[in-house]
Design goal:
The protein is an alpha/beta fold and 191 residues long. The protein has a 5-stranded mixed β-sheet with strand order 3-2-1-4-5, with helices on both faces. The model has no long low-confidence stretch (mean pLDDT 87).
Length: 191
Amino acid sequence: MLNLLPTLESSSNIVVYASDETGISVESDNHYSWSPVGHPPILEKNARHEGVNIIGSTAILNGYHIVNDIYPSSKSITTKEVKAHIQHLLDINEGKKVVIFLDNARFHKSLEMQKFYYDNRDILEVIFLPKYSPYMNPQEQIWHYVKAKLYKPSARECKYELTYDINLILGDLNLNKDKIRSLADGRKYLL
């Protein structure tokens, strides 16, 4: 990796992404809270189990930006959604080679995806992270940041409100390249 990093950084014809999927519920996770002594915190739960599944990719070396696709939680992320997401990355980076770091999810390594990788080998390089190593994926830090920003003590009314809030947070992040760099700079992960 050390020999590869300067080449990736210095090339204006290569875009490097870290990619991952996550699910977010309309109900906030209670990571921490406070209340007066003797009065436990009240967190609203609606028990609807609604939410969204997200595929996200963050450019981690140059031109820091986030690209995401959001689906209702009733729709599982499959090969079809991942393939469409990667195709979108190729489309927005026309004329450039796209390098993507992925985990070892089954739908990343399906026969259909292997054929897709092979068919696009001139413009797409896929690097699989070691198994069970989310700490090596910069996209995990983006998800952590988004989920922390989404926290509130009451449940959201619906998945559309949640989707709006997620898009707002990711939109603000895309306007703040330094924040993306601080969260997901590839140099922290690729060395």
